[in-house]
Amino acid sequence: TIHTHLEEALHSTQQESPLQGRSIVVTAGPTREKIDGVRYISNYSSGKMGFAIAGAAAKRGALVTLITGPVHLETPPGVKRIDVESALEMHAAARTFFQSCHIFIGAAAVADYRPAAPYERKMKKEAEEIEITLVKNPDILAEFSLQKSTKQLAIGFALEMQSDIDNARKKLESKQLDLIAFNFFDRKTSGFEVDTNILTLIERSGKTTELPQLTKHDAAERLLEVIEKQYGSKSPLHKNSR
Amino acid sequence: TIHTHLEEALHSTQQESPLQGRSIVVTAGPTREKIDGVRYISNYSSGKMGFAIAGAAAKRGALVTLITGPVHLETPPGVKRIDVESALEMHAAARTFFQSCHIFIGAAAVADYRPAAPYERKMKKEAEEIEITLVKNPDILAEFSLQKSTKQLAIGFALEMQSDIDNARKKLESKQLDLIAFNFFDRKTSGFEVDTNILTLIERSGKTTELPQLTKHDAAERLLEVIEKQYGSKSPLHKNSR
């Protein structure tokens, strides 16, 4: 769009971002896992953080593909949006971009589990108690990260209910991420359905940056600054390697 | 509000509705049933039908209380809105209005079941397969209908995947409703997440009115016309009984 081109032009007069012209995939929002034709399992993710990241990356001149679950948000200018519903749909959409993207940012709250045998129509149920069997969904971010080349970055989020940061560090290790944003879950200031977040950015090197309570927009900017440094140092010849 | 008073005044110059000054409770939207601190079970209800009914009733001068699950909709002018999340919360809110309302319209897609033991925090799960036990939620509409006085009306919806209307008739009987709107579920033209509905209105007397595909707004108007007739004939002295 003209708007994006103007923003890109404006940005490039200020400074060239190492993300300029790079392909970035961002996942966002919740997924919905069908129980039957009318019922589903989901989570409280609003998609705001992922959309803010996608917008901030596009402003830096990156070619952003935003794969999102069902949310009520406007697509940021210059971002290519792909709407999906379930974790399996998000997985399929993400896989088509794994090879060709430079940076993969998993900000979606992908459902860990889905009903094992979803029913096409509406279930008729009379029993006082019923059981639903859930099976594990693929870990989209880990799958990308564990197969990524040395030129690709994988960035993830860890939403934790405890202030215990070790769980986030474990995820960074086990998924071999380049950076994990530890997201302390607090109903009022950070996490789902609020406009602010309190993130701690943990890099592969161990470097840890504690951000204060910021709007998700500002938190996205700070995250992108760290990613720019990481990507810039990883591929110092990025201007020539296009 | 001034707006409501103006609308009421305007309406009353046209014709006095038997719903004028009557207390109507409308339930709308889905409910969300917590699995844990971040996950829930819900359904695809958008709340549009219930909101349209609430708006149409308020235009007729009724005193409308709209009890709604989580939706992304504007409150219709002159309607008192109460936001709830779970079926149990909707049940509690509805019960406070049972005694004093003249007409109860259950348009919400209340979850039939909720997780038996929701977990406060975020579950840590590693297993390939897990089981969730669900227990039955109260049937809010049936509870009101079965205890209503002869001066009160209970109106319900039956969302059915088959064109088999008998199920709706059975619900009308078993819940002793005054009217049930049989709502054929079709992803494109009728039911959840679309702007139109194909309703068949079945009254206690057996009288059946098949409506064509209408906007939910127009369907609400037609439903209210039938309710007006039912309520008017039930309480012919309504003007004096205030």
UniProtKB/TrEMBL annotation, chains A, B:
Biochemical pathway: Cofactor biosynthesis; coenzyme A biosynthesis; CoA from (R)-pantothenate: step 3/5; Cofactor biosynthesis; coenzyme A biosynthesis; CoA from (R)-pantothenate: step 2/5
Region named Phosphopantothenate--cysteine ligase: 24-242
The keyword RNA-binding belongs to this UniProt entry's keyword annotation: no
GO biological process, one term: coenzyme A biosynthetic process
Domain DNA/pantothenate metabolism flavoprotein C-terminal residue range list: 19-229
Coiled-coil annotated spans: none
This protein's record includes keyword Ligase: yes
Cofactors that this protein relies on: FMN; Mg(2+)
Molecular function (Gene Ontology), one example: phosphopantothenoylcysteine decarboxylase activity
Assigned EC number: 4.1.1.36, 6.3.2.5
Enzymatic reactions: (R)-4'-phosphopantothenate + L-cysteine + CTP = N-[(R)-4-phosphopantothenoyl]-L-cysteine + CMP + diphosphate + H(+); N-[(R)-4-phosphopantothenoyl]-L-cysteine + H(+) = (R)-4'-phosphopantetheine + CO2
Binding site for CTP: 112, 122, 138-141, 157, 171, 175
Cellular component aspect of the GO annotation: phosphopantothenoylcysteine decarboxylase complex
Cofactor binding summary note: Binds 1 FMN per subunit.
This protein's UniProt keywords: Decarboxylase, Flavoprotein, FMN, Ligase, Lyase, Magnesium, Metal-binding, Multifunctional enzyme
Family of this protein: In the C-terminal section; belongs to the PPC synthetase family.
Function statement: Catalyzes two sequential steps in the biosynthesis of coenzyme A. In the first step cysteine is conjugated to 4'-phosphopantothenate to form 4-phosphopantothenoylcysteine. In the second step the latter compound is decarboxylated to form 4'-phosphopantotheine. Catalyzes two steps in the biosynthesis of coenzyme A. In the first step cysteine is conjugated to 4'-phosphopantothenate to form 4-phosphopantothenoylcysteine, in the latter compound is decarboxylated to form 4'-phosphopantotheine.
Protein name, UniProt field: Coenzyme A biosynthesis bifunctional protein CoaBC
Species this protein is from: Chlorobium ferrooxidans DSM 13031
